[in-house]
Amino acid sequence: MSALxxxxxxxxGRRRVQTIVIGLVVMIAVTSAVLGGSLMVASxxxxxxxxxxxxxxxxxxxxxxxxxTEAQVAASASAAGVAGSAGPFPNAELxxxxxxxxxxxxxxxxxxxxxxxxxxxVDIVDGRWAxxxxxxVLATGEHLRLPPQVLGQRWTVSDAPGSPxxxxxxxxxSASQTADAWTxxxxxxxxxxxxGPRAYQMLYRFTEAGTAAQVQAGxxxxxxxxxxxALDSAVSWLDVRREATGETVLLVPFLIAFGMLGVVMAVxxxxxxxxxxxxxxxxxxxxxxxxxxxPAQVVRAYVGQALIPAAVGAALGVVAGNLLTVPILAQTDxxxxxxxxxxALWVDAVVAGGALTLVAVTALAAAARAGxxxxxxxxxxxxxxxxxxxRWAARLTSRLPISRPVTLxxxxxxxxxxxxxxxxxxxxxxxxxxxxxxxxxxxxNRIQEVEDIADVQVGQPHRVPRxxxxxxxxxxxxxxxxxGPVQPQPFDDPAAIERxxxxxxxxxxxLGMARSEITAAGITGELxxxxxxxxxxxxxxxxxxxxxxxxxxxxxVSTPFLTAAGKEVGDRIVLTDKGVDLPVTIVGEAFxxxxxxxxxxxxxATLRVAEPELAPSMYYVTLGSGTDARAYAKALTAAxxxxxxxxxGLSHEPDEMIIIINALTGLLSLLLMVVAGLGVLNTVVxxxxxxxxxLGVHKALGMTPRQTTAMVIASVVVTGLxxxxxxxGVGVLLQRTVITEMASSVGFRLPGSVLDVYGSLDxxxxxxxxxxxxxxxxxxxxxxxxxxRVAVALRTE
Amino acid sequence: MTTPLIELHEVTRRYxxxxxxxxxxxxxxxxxxxxxxxxxxxxxxxTMLNLVAGLDRPSTGTVTVDGVxxxxxxxxxxxRYRRARIGLVFQFFNLLDDxxxxxxxxxxxxxxxxxxxxxxxxxxxxxxxxxxxRHAGAYPGRLSGGERQRVAVARALMNRPPLLLADxxxxxxxxxxxxxxxxxxxxxxxxxxxxxxxxxDLVLAERCATRTVQLLDGQVAADSALERTR
Lengths: 797, 230
Hints:
The structure holds two protein chains of two kinds.
Chain A: H1 3-14, H2 16-43, H3 46-53, E1 59-64, H4 70-75, E2 82-94, E3 96-97, E4 107-111, E5 123-127, E6 135-139, E7 154-157, E8 165-173, E9 181-183, H5 185-192, E10 199-206, H6 212-224, E11 231-236, H7 237-244, H8 248-279, H9 282-290, H10 295-336, H11 345-372, H12 375-380, H13 391-398, H14 404-411, H15 417-451, E12 456-459, H16 494-503, E13 507-520, E14 523-533, E15 542-546, E16 554-557, H17 559-565, E17 572-577, E18 580-591, E19 600-603, H18 604-608, E20 618-623, H19 629-640, E21 646-649, H20 656-690, H21 692-700, H22 705-714, H23 717-745, H24 752-755, H25 760-787, H26 790-795
Parallel strand pairs in A: 4-9, 6-8, 14-19, 16-18
Antiparallel strand pairs in A: 1-10, 1-11, 2-4, 2-10, 3-7, 5-8, 6-9, 7-8, 12-20, 12-21, 13-14, 13-17, 13-20, 15-18, 16-19, 17-18
Helix pairs in contact in A: 1-10, 2-8, 2-10, 2-11, 2-20, 8-11, 8-15, 8-20, 8-23, 10-11, 10-20, 13-14, 14-22, 15-20, 15-23, 15-25, 20-25, 22-25, 23-25
Chain B: E1 6-13, E2 22-29, E3 34-38, H1 45-53, E4 60-65, E5 68-69, H2 75-85, E6 86-89, H3 101-111, H4 116-129, H5 145-157, E7 163-167, H6 175-190, E8 194-199, H7 202-208, E9 211-216, E10 219-223, H8 224-229
Parallel strand pairs in B: 3-8, 3-9, 6-7, 7-8
Antiparallel strand pairs in B: 1-2, 1-4, 4-5, 9-10
Helix pairs in contact in B: 3-4, 3-5, 5-6
């Protein structure tokens, strides 16, 4: 073994703590960077990946079975620009009832013999494909939100003659969202009766489909290849993608924020650890040079000493990062229909390479400086800080009326200002991560709370809206639902319903909703209008600006509506309902996600000008605290029975996306805090080592182990407090920026209640969080310092 | 007979595999004595001093100082013992560079819980007595070797310890500064201070000590007190 190799090996082995800290810091930094990086890569295109894996349909076309033959539809596969096709598949919209006899939202059922093919290779998520009579496969996704226990249940097809039963044999997912359910073509024919399937579905992939114009060109070619009026409708994959990626884009700013925190933190800590490791070895470098080592050999030796544990840490970090990424992405796979494991080898390579380069460059810079020192100077460089720095602080703290060991420790950071600043930065990043994580979680939960204000809904039996409660536990629909083909029917006597609700014990407030479709000047297409009634409407919406409705001819809308209409709160706009123009004033901007933020909320009296018979079709009830929703719903249903209404409890299960973000936030925060703690630990180890002689003097003069511990802990108090204060501020800023960006990426502005989530006490605690990180990081070296034998310390010159 | 201030009874100190640094050494020092421990490098002088100061523990045997079994003390008790009973003076002064002279001197008293005001008065008194009061606000780096050692002695005397231990107190000083320190130790002894000095310096031993103990290979080779009794 060469002399250089011996020096490297001895250095790695002798400085075990430093070796372990370098390895650990690099490992955790690489773990968080691999995790963040992989998720960023994955989040950029879960839909695209799923679409690509399934050979998704660029155009999903519906043909009128009465206007075209199956053979003519099949022939459209050779239209200009068509690269691949699947179908024609017979399909129909059917009404089914669950085992309890309750209707589920109407389903577009496609007759398809198998899930594969050239286009839209449907993934079977659970169970199997429908192969025989009486079998159906349901699509997973937002439409039905089915619980897993539905698999194997026997439902009935209420539209089919004799309401035959059907067994749910599987769950499947189509990225192109081509169906709500699938069955065999023969079974579909049996259900739809002697008239046969009402429509054919044909799926196309085009040679060029990157833009709306290209998809439109493909559609035109397809349309030209079939008889006129045969093409009922066609859905572009770009529209499906826009719908599907609505939630995905929310992840991006969040991951970018965490990714940046992780990278900056890794750079800072790795730099600090490596530079510190080399600087404490200056004396040893002097000895090596005195023995005849050249500056280049010294540099190689110390770069090698840093790279060995760093390489081990990087390798372990890559493994750990991927191990963490896989289960998290499994959740997003479930959400978006992808089936890859999320491991991006190029991310692994870039992160590991970057970390090792950083280690090498930092070690090189520090070792080169030490290597250039003359031997005599290197030998003379003491372990204690150069006299002169921080004396003012020592003088100042010595006057404080607290225990002397504490005042001695408080002055320590000022002797090494650059190192202290790097520790402050590390602690600040840790505190920022925690502050950000908690704030983000609170904001997201408050967004969820907006959806969860209602505890019970009241509707007409067997007439639930599309997107309404699934079989089993009900989902929280919030105030407002997407439009579906079947709208809930208005109540005949809404005043009586309201009296019963108001009189029911446990009622805290309620909101009645009537629905209609309107147009608004300056906005293309029909809009969902919700006409509300009841005394407590304001509590069901979070206002961003303006006020809640105070009377008719007023509307409350969301940011996307204002953006689309080019209006502001206070402006007037003309709505058209059933041909009647309704001039209204926009009195408020609410945070309302329904209808992609285009929903118009108004008083029922506003729309009654055009629709005198308009009446609520649904009521949402908020219960007093401590009221059991299930028992309340049962009692209310009994009370409403004479009026033909039923009450259902709404479950308040958190959104999957929020669960994923919360889990990620917690994990990444934990990693960043550990790295921050390790940074502190490393710095205090360096400080303790550098001050070991002074420590020996203190102990020789009678400093007890407890006083020694107090001194070392006190040495991180200032940095911890400053880091915590800075970190809390940065965390708040980050939370506001990221949450605002997340909302604005989908066109919304957020109400103050979602943005302003920190109280004074919270901020104080987050600030003190920095102190906690610092103290935890300093505990171990403080223990070592306390145990250091005086004779040994004094010999360490 | 006076109770000894220091009593080592068959003390052996062994490090790792080599021969013991001290081998079954027994020694008594009476209050008010000024003892010089002499011997070549590796004879066990510093080891003996460390054992008496509670900086190290014997492998076997007992060390009793001012009635305290030093060999049985834990870390915290050992620190409290040093605060109360021992003043330590080192060859290289071991002053803390980032503290002023006054702060250095006050430190042992402050570690013992003395208030800053009281400590300041005591430090001023000691610095005045040792002739370095004009440097109270200066940092040790600006002082000469002799002045630094005077400050170190002042620090050692801060808590009025019954025993002053000095390890080669003139070893790092020029002749003139060494003279200063020798004079100081003599004066302190004359005031009744018990002193144990570890040194190579025979002149120092002659000038300051009333008794010399010669160590060789970890054993007492000669003790002037014993020779006198013979």
